[in-house]
């Protein structure tokens, strides 16, 4: 059977997974009466809750006698490590662009990777049925983006389609019949080349591992495209590291290929197809699985370096061990090492003493998803404030800078620009009307300046602003950036919070807890209205007397507390504070540092 390998790439929330749903349905991958969840490719619980794709996943459909292997990739820059690996095993890309928003930061990131590999994109202008859609402007912006990224003449001569993923149609013209996805299927068959690896089917077997999985019965599983040769279950292969060193020799226990949503066992893997192998015990992502006579490893795509780091430690608060069962540093280390093995964008280092681990990655969202997964698995952790990773070049200190694209109502542009260019040391790059009473702002801002900014941004724009960011490059260190201005309210007692005490504390600032909640000495229970920290007693009850007066026995009415999400809590804390994460709770607490530790942190933060 003919094969086509294609990846679907786009900015977050531009409709990749919804489009794949339609391709699966219209190709006959599902039975007539089969119950299929919306966004079927988002199989992870967190993906469904947040409406984003985190892990790259493959599927396949059959169209006119050709098997089309489709890879759904993440849309957020924090998970770009997944995209970089996946693009190495496809022969074409389908670039989705929202017809109303146009190319966004992640569009630029994934497109630059695809163009650098020589892939010729098919551009799909999605959501053209939205009232605010401007498909012609979006198409022009895509062409300009390709030109700015150094696309070749062949890549600039890209075909394009107009589509609505939720409507289930794609057409070559804007006023087409709007019936189904036939035009997209046919475009893939015409425009994407069959894999060149098919010509190498008679050579010794070679495959580059791009994603790692695990199965309760089959054990470790590696997925990738077969670069050469054939393989059957029971064949003996060996694994080579990137440097060509032999890792292990193993026997293939099972070969699976993607047929619809679930991998199906197949008898033989052939060059050009995307498959999953089981049977190895040590091989991992970026290793080469090959016949015993092969001595050279396949080249693996370089991965962009991490830009922030977070310290994961054991939960040593007075409430430790009440919610979770996995609390020891040894268990936490094993889990982090397992994550680093499958996610090449994450690096884990031990700290002196072995009680804490420095985890480096792409951004706050990536760290937040890792922590959320761990707390759901029963882990208890203490998490530090994210720190950016600096670089030294020719004696100069460099820091990561991100490109920020903001769509905001015209009335709030002044407040946003003032915060970005003043307090957070950013540089304005562009500002122009985006239509419908909105302005688009493009700025280059140090990563340090964006930690904790999103909550402030939503307040400044009354919840109507949209902020997208992506790593731009390295720039000379820009000096001290002021952190959070407000102090915090700190509990001075251990026990259960009392409504009367909290009612009296409301005039001091915003509270993070409600009545009848466990608190302990050093726990942060709210934000002070001033810039200094304040120790308070949330356990102080009302003094009882025999004297009765009108109004003294009225019920206390508390303002609902502010409940910080995991990402908000991590971005909120200062260097001398920690987030305590358990399966049931997210708490903030003070970490009292000794003078030497305080000086060391001050030096690292600049």
Task: Describe the protein's architecture and organization.
With 606 residues, the chain is α+β, with helices and mostly antiparallel strands. It is 23% helix and 32% strand. It contains 15 helices and 35 strands. Strands 18, 19, 20, 21, 22, 28, 30, 32, 33, 34 and 35 form an 11-stranded mixed beta sheet that branches. The longest helix has 14 residues, at 135-148.
SS-based structural class? alpha+beta
Shape: globular
The radius of gyration over CA amounts to 27 Å
| Mean pLDDT metric | 82
Taking the alpha carbons of the first and last residues, their distance comes to 59 Å
- Tell me the CATH superfamily of the largest domain: P-loop containing nucleotide triphosphate hydrolases
Q: State which percent range the strand residues make up.
A: 25-35%
Query: Portion of residues in helices?
Result: 10-25%
Give me the number of helical elements: 15
Strands, count? 35
What number of domains?
4
């Amino acid at each position: 059977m003919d094969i086509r390998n294609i990846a679907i790439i786009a900015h977050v929330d531009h409709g990749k997974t919804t489009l794949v749903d339609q391709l699966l349905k219209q190709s006959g991958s599902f039975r007539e009466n089969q119950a299929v969840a919306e966004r079927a490719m988002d199989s992870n619980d967190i993906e469904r809750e947040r409406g984003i794709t985190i892990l790259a996943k493959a599927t396949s459909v059959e169209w006119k006698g050709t098997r089309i292997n489709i890879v759904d990739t993440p849309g957020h820059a924090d998970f770009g490590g997944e995209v970089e690996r996946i693009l190495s095993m496809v022969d074409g890309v389908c670039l989705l662009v929202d017809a109303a928003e146009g190319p966004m930061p992640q569009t630029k990131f994934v497109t630059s990777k695809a163009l650098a590999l020589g892939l010729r994109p098919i551009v799909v202008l999605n959501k053209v049925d939205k009232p605010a859609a401007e498909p012609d402007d979006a198409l022009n912006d895509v062409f300009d983006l390709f030109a700015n990224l150094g696309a070749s003449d062949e890549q600039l001569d890209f075909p394009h389609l107009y589509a609505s993923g939720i409507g289930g149609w794609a057409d070559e013209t804007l006023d087409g019949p709007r019936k189904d996805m036939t035009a997209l299927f046919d475009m893939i068959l015409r425009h994407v080349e069959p894999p060149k690896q098919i010509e190498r089917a008679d050579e010794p077997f070679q495959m580059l591992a791009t994603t790692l999985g695990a199965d309760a019965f089959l054990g470790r599983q590696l997925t990738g495209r077969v670069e050469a040769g054939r393989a059957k279950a029971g064949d003996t292969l060996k694994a080579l590291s990137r440097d060509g060193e032999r890792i292990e020799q193993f026997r293939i226990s099972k070969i699976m290929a993607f047929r619809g949503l679930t991998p199906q066992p197949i008898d033989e893997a052939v060059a050009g197809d995307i498959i999953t192998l089981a049977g190895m015990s040590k091989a991992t992502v970026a290793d080469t699985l090959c016949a015993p006579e092969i001595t050279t490893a396949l080249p693996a795509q370089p991965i962009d370096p991490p830009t922030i780091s977070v310290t994961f430690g054991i939960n040593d608060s007075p409430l430790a061990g009440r919610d979770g069962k996995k609390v020891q540093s040894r268990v936490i280390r094993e889990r982090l090492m397992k994550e680093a093995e499958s996610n090449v964008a994450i690096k884990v280092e031990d700290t002196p003493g072995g009680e804490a681990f420095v985890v480096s990655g792409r951004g706050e969202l990536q760290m937040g998803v890792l922590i959320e997964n761990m707390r759901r698995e029963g882990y208890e952790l203490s998490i530090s404030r994210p720190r950016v990773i600096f670089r030294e070049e020719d004696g100069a200190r460099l820091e990561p800078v991100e490109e920020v694209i903001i769509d905001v109502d015209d009335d709030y542009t002044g407040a946003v620009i003032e915060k970005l260019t003043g307090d957070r040391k950013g540089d304005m790059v562009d500002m122009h009307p985006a239509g419908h009473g909105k302005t688009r702002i493009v700025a280059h801002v140090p990563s340090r300046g964006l930690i904790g900014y999103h909550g402030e941004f939503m307040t400044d724009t009354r919840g109507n602003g949209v902020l997208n960011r992506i790593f731009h490059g390295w720039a000379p260190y820009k000096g001290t950036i002021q952190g959070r201005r407000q102090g915090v309210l700190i509990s001075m007692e251990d026990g259960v919070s009392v409504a009367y005490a909290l009612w009296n504390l409301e005039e001091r600032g915003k509270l993070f807890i409600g009545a009848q909640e466990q608190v302990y000495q050093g726990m942060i229970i709210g934000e002070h209205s001033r810039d200094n920290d304040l120790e308070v007693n949330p356990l102080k009850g009302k003094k009882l007397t025999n004297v009765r007066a009108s109004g003294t026995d009225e019920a206390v009415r508390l303002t609902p507390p502010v409940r910080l999400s995991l990402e908000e809590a991590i971005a909120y804390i200062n260097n001398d504070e920690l987030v305590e994460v358990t399966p049931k709770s997210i708490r903030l607490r003070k970490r009292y540092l000794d003078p030497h530790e305080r000086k060391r942190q001050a030096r690292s933060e600049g």
